[in-house]
Predict the 3D structure of the following.
Amino acid sequence: MSKQLRTICNRDCPDSCSILAEVENGRIVKQRGDRAHGITRGFLCKRGNQYLDRFYSPNRVLHPLRRKPSGVWERITWDDALDLAAEKLRYHMSLDGPESILAITYSGIKGLVAKSKWHIFWSTLGVTGVKGGLSAEAVHAGQALDFGGDCAHTMEDFENAAGFVIWGKNIAITYPHSIPFVKVARKKGAPMVVIDPVACKTAKQADQHLQLVPGSDGMLALGIARQLIKRGAVDQAFIDAHTVGFEQFAELTRAIEPDAVLRATGLTRDQVEALTDLYATCKPLCTMAGLGIGYWRHGSATIRLIDALAAMTGNIGIPGGGVFTDTSASDGLDLRDLSHPYPRKLRLPRLGEEILAAHAPPIKAAWIAGANPAATAPDTNRLDQALSGLDFLVVVDQFQTASSNHAHLFLPCTTYLEMDDLVRAYGHHWLGMCQQVVEPLGEARSDSQILEQMADRLGFGQALAGSTASWTSKLLGALTARGVTPERLAQGPTPNPMRHPVAFADKRFKTESGKFEFVTDYPCRPKEVGLDGSLRLMATKTIHMVNAQINERDLRDEALVRAHPQTLLEQGLLNEQRVLVKSSVGSVQARIFADETVLQDVLLFNPAAWRGDLQGVNQLRESIMTDLGNAAAMHETQIKLETVAG
Ligand code: SF4
């Protein structure tokens, strides 16, 4: 007999799709997108459609494992595993203090109940936590200065746009459920310009693709702003009433000569003019900015310049406008448990060197859950070294990963098909519940359960006790009075009724001044590359990957890189030749392909993972920090190529 049950895809993806899973005799035979969900609209991406391969993969770890002194894993019971973990935590807390234990998590735990329990558990113990990240943190920090928060409209509001500027965001791959909304506006005549150094899938669907020199986004924004001011194509009423700092911003733009913009960006005068025209004449203009903007040393300052273009043209606080990066969509939620303090925090983008450098006390033990930093953080070789020196490392995951290479204990956790939790999307404004569709495979347990059972052993079980429904009820805070209750969410996802479809429609910004605050400084000039044969390392997401997660069958047998034919010629390389890609922190052997769509100063890794090497492209990336947000400047690394004999 078959039955259909609803859950939410809680992988690290902005779309948080509502899923209908068909179960026959206790086995999921099919899952599909929920037609009743206003964003999912009945379709899943390829990663979602192929998820059952991952779910039922023979490589999935389904029992707790302990590493024997010989290095081989052995199966143990949950009781033995959790007793051992508790004993080790107690030992290190009494020997070197709680701060000698490092608790590492990132975007892999998306359920708000599990997240709350994570922070309560580790802050109660007083361990070292992590800060910053590998994603949109620089962009968030920049927008916090401009707006006091994100400037995301609801996804549904994209339909109201008269035009789109998609800046460093490959929405066709990373934000697929936005496409139908964009298409509605496009059918009404809205033009779409994509600004991206990579000829990505979204660029192919655009009216115009501005393939600028990597990292020159800020110069382009300044150049456009200067032209808009010169033409008088600004919304003076908005600027006067709702902003501060415009005069200093205008002064900043005057320092940038138009020719300097062309040199920096590699774009033609006509291309820059066309974009200026779009900003000058198209309203409401919707900007979508991606991680690509923030992956530079001056990532925060760069998004602030892009925000400034939207503000000076009055595209803020109106339907169809805004600058969408992503959204916390937390209006009305009670998220106090997510902000429990830690006595010390290490920066995620520099985790390897910060673990090695930590003293008073040094880091002796770590617990990793909802993260795989040894593949997703920069300079993974250093992190590998740091993790290999720990006395005790626990990894909670569904598969063995680069991070579990040096683990002493592996605890298998559940997926969105086997657990209950409250999920808030970061690409739209809908809330929903992960709901258990089948019994957990093998002995997998949810992160919530594992933390609860650990807290029991460490003497504060009460702090994490209670049903998922009671935790959800608490988290829903003011929303319960608006009808968003655990019972309501069990029926299916619902939009957050406290989130206005248009960000800052009331023009009351959350900054100190209460107004939009213009950026008044931009220190960045694009760095010279190519003079000594170096190339910029870029790696973009593919439809097969969710960060480091990729199905076995989608892995290539070797690393593949692409470069412009002229680059191959200049470097004396042949198409499909094997090369050694070297950065200052690592090297990788790869096969190189000539590709005319790749810019001449760029080496493009796509995909960023391959068979037999769990660390992937991040073993080449240097741990360079962004200006704000403690984020990783992923695109700043430069590499050189060498031929490989034979
Ligand atoms: S990965 Fe994203 S788009 Fe794909 S099914 Fe999951 S939430 Fe939906």
